[in-house]
Q: What sequence folds into this?
């Protein structure tokens, strides 16, 4: 089971109305940090939002519809508790008190005297009702691919996405750092500490009873860290003494599996509001200046980073003109010298064309955004924003033969020439459609054959290129998720006088914060796989900002090992968010092909054209298909891993791969396992191995009856296993 | 039963005890045919000329069972014994198991079973045989 705990819940309202009874998943630290990131316009607001809901952790509900959490009583002029806390973090007293102006409706004169936030949560963070709208004042940077999510462009899109997320995260981190430096008290991280303690107070609790509890809440800055300590009163013995710490890292450092384990939530996780294979939406702070010029500069940085990353992966994006001409036959005669082609020296810069023609980075909201002159009060349907790719591709007349993308390009309209793009030996026509043009992204795919160009050879490249063909693995986080009813109320919070948790909260509501949470869970699951694969927890993932694992044919052996760790995808995922325990199914997107027995020239195989990325829900009952050995679609589920492990155990004493394979072949032909074992050692002339290595280890029993019973049990289980997974033999390597 | 007690018993007695032990086994759904297959194996093993017994004996028993074209269980026993050594040893204690192999329906199933799941049955019979008839085989023969 994968268990996550980011602290207690932060809301119980139905997101579609702001009232009602809804179960929200996002914990208090996520809510407060995201409020700071998306809502604050200056340093004091940023710091104020970081602890504005501090006293929610008390779970004091005087009446059923009121979660009392302001530091002091709104209509009393003295702000004793807030004064103490505000002084620690150097912000004006009264700022936090006014984050719910409605609380001052009976003493409006007092509200007018207090400092106020420029934007409030409903306009940025908490009115994104039911996945349909984003906060009207919130600002986002959006990366959109004008491309269908085909496998042969997945690698390129992932690298661009990682570069985009890195550039944006670093920009935001810089802005936060300079913002926090404006006062002497500076910090880079916030540590939210929750101490769960059993308490006994009179019912209903008096102010005198609550005050000592509230006095246990404190803030202090130690080194670069703001520590915010909460007391969460609990009723049961089981909950007593629990201690949860969540650290929000506002630097741009890429997350590592070790940090995930320590409950560190990195900046990139909080900024990633939505992510799928066509678009990524990242929240940006109000205080981050972003003009049209800034946006252009940012796009250039993303392109430079992408170029650098592709170079490391040994993927070329610069093409000789003659190569470009071989990729497609123009429909009409073309004067190539007159075309507005992007060039670096004599070479055509295909990546520049990708960025110009198939990538959009735009600001949503804010001064540089499209439609920024509007009042900011209009609705912003989420679906309209995340379907930006369709909007941009609509009406584009050319269609790519390889990825089916509608596009326009500076390259002349043409008919893709398959054998010119790849080679005369290309035989996988069933995967590339009958006709069509070639888009810039697919031009890059076509360009990267195993054969180095003469120029590359002159630069010292030797052997064959092992990128963009053959084995590959790409695991990326996904914003998709599933939730099935079944949350458990761990206990009734002792200060819930009004009975908020007396009846169950029926609706699970999903907001922008939940999107960030699910994305974080997805990252952590991929991080766990990476930790198991690399054997270390201090190493960022290969695509650290995207949160993805990317391996190509160069790392074919690692890909085989990676597959063994996919069993992480079949674990139960449970989120603890006091007072609830919630089973969840976050998702991971996988593009995958591995070679097991097909080793001959695997690097030349067009595996990228033969399969599609799949979105996998992390759940014990999940299943999906993956491509193996360039031609076999393998159904992967939890039982497959269990069966594979069990077989490995049965065969662990047989070291010779030839004998192992012979045993499995005999099983597939219907032999019983003991006879198959004897046959695997036929050359030995005795039954010693069948008896000692197999019968005595697995059929052991005090009596012959027990031994036979064990034998029949194993016989039956093996029969079922091989009937269901005949492909298992592929995991027992064919001897060379 | 201790090893000492076993050695004091005659071979006839030990073979009878093995036969009784097979009769007492609890073997699930296929019990009648498994018991009969084990009895057939007991007859084969018990009747073997000691001169042909070495560490490969069980492998050879299995080999001739699987290779036999016999259509009945008694024929199969005869086939295997003749292939291993025509000079087999007759034991009165094997009379009962031999008689059992002439039962109609079960014998046919037992023959099929013996030819399909030969090795597990041979190993199980070996376990019974070393427990009741020849305890010294446990160390001496890996066959």
A:
């Amino acid at each position: 089971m994968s268990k996550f705990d980011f602290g207690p819940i932060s809301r119980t309202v139905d997101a579609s109305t702001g009232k009602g009874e809804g179960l929200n998943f996002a914990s208090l630290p996520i809510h407060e940090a995201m409020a700071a990131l998306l809502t604050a316009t200056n340093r004091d607001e940023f710091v104020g939002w970081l602890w504005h809901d501090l006293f929610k952790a008390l779970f004091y509900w005087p009446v059923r519809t009121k979660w009392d959490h302001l530091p002091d009583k709104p209509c009393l002029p003295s702000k004793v508790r807030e004064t103490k806390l505000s002084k620690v973090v150097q912000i004006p007293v009264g700022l936090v008190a006014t984050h719910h102006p409605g609380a001052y409706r009976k003493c409006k004169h007092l509200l007018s005297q207090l400092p106020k936030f420029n934007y409030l949560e409903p306009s940025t963070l908490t009115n994104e009702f039911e996945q349909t709208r984003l906060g009207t004042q919130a600002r986002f940077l959006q990366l959109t691919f004008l491309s269908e999510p085909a496998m042969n462009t997945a690698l390129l899109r992932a690298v661009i996405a990682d570069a985009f997320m890195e550039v944006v995260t670093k920009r935001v981190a810089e802005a936060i750092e300079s913002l926090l430096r404006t006062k002497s008290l500076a910090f880079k991280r916030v540590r939210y500490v929750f101490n769960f303690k059993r308490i006994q107070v009179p019912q209903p609790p008096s102010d005198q009873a609550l005050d000592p509890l509230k006095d246990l809440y404190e803030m202090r800055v130690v080194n670069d860290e703001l520590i915010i300590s909460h007391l969460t009163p609990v009723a049961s013995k089981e909950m007593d003494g629990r201690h949860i710490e969540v650290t929000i890292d506002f630097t741009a450092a890429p997350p590592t599996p070790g940090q995930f384990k320590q409950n560190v939530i990195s900046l990139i996780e909080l900024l990633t509001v939505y992510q799928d294979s066509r678009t990524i939406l990242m929240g940006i702070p109000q205080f981050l200046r972003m003009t049209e010029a800034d946006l252009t500069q940012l796009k250039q940085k993303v392109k430079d980073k992408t170029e650098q990353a592709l170079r490391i992966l040994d993927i070329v994006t610069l093409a000789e003109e003659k190569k470009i001409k071989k990729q497609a036959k123009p429909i009409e005669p073309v004067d190539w010298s007159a075309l507005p082609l992007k060039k670096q020296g004599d070479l055509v810069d295909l990546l520049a064309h990708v960025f110009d023609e198939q990538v959009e980075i735009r600001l949503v909201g804010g001064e540089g955004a499209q439609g920024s002159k509007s009042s900011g009060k209009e609705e912003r349907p989420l679906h309209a924003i995340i379907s930006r790719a369709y909007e941009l591709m609509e009406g584009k007349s050319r269609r790519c033969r390889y990825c089916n993308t509608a596009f326009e390009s500076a390259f002349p309209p043409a008919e893709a020439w398959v054998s010119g793009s790849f080679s005369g030996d290309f035989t996988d026509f069933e995967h590339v459609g009958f006709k069509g043009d070639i888009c810039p992204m697919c031009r890059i795919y076509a360009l990267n054959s195993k054969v180095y160009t003469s120029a590359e050879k002159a630069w010292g490249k030797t052997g064959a290129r092992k990128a963009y063909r053959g084995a590959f693995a790409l695991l990326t986080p996904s914003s998709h998720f599933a939730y099935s009813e079944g949350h458990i109320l761990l206990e009734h919070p002792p200060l819930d006088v009004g009975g908020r948790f007396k009846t169950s909260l029926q609706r699970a509501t999903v907001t922008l914060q939940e999107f960030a949470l699910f994305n974080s869970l997805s990252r952590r699951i991929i991080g766990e796989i990476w930790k198991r694969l690399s054997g270390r927890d201090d190493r960022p993932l290969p695509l650290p900002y995207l949160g993805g694992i990317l391996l190509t044919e160069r790392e074919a052996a690692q890909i085989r090992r990676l597959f063994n760790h996919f069993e992480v995808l079949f674990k139960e995922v449970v989120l603890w968010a006091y007072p609830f325990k919630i089973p969840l199914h976050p998702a991971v997107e996988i593009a995958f092909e591995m070679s097991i027995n097909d080793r001959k020239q695997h690097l030349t195989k067009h595996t990228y054209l033969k399969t599609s990325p799949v979105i996998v829900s992390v759940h014990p009952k999940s299943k999906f298909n993956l491509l193996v050995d360039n031609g076999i679609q393998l159904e992967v589920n939890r039982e497959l891993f269990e069966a594979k492990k069990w077989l490995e155990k049965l065969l662990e004493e047989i070291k010779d791969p030839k004998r192992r394979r012979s045993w499995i072949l005999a099983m597939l032909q219907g032999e019983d396992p003991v006879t198959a074992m004897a046959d695997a050692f036929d050359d030995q002339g005795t039954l010693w191995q069948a008896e000692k290595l197999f019968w005595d280890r697995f059929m052991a029993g005090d009596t012959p009856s027990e031994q036979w019973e064990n034998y029949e049990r194993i016989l039956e289980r093996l029969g079922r296993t091989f009937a269901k997974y005949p492909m298992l033999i592929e995991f027992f390597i064919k001897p060379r | 039963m201790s090893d000492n007690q076993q050695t004091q018993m005659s071979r006839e007695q030990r073979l009878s005890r093995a036969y009784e032990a097979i009769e007492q086994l609890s073997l699930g759904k296929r019990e009648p045919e498994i018991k009969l297959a084990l009895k057939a194996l007991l007859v084969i093993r018990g009747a073997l000329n000691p001169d042909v017994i070495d560490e490969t004996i069980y492998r050879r028993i299995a080999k001739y069972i699987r290779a036999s074209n016999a259509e009945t269980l008694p024929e199969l026993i005869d086939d295997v014994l003749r292939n291993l050594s025509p000079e087999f040893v007759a034991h009165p204690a094997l009379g009962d198991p031999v008689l059992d192999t002439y039962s109609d329906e079960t014998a046919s199933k037992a023959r099929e079973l013996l030819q399909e799941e030969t090795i597990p049955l041979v190993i199980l019979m070996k376990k019974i045989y070393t427990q009741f008839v020849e305890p010294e085989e446990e160390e001496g023969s890996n066959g």
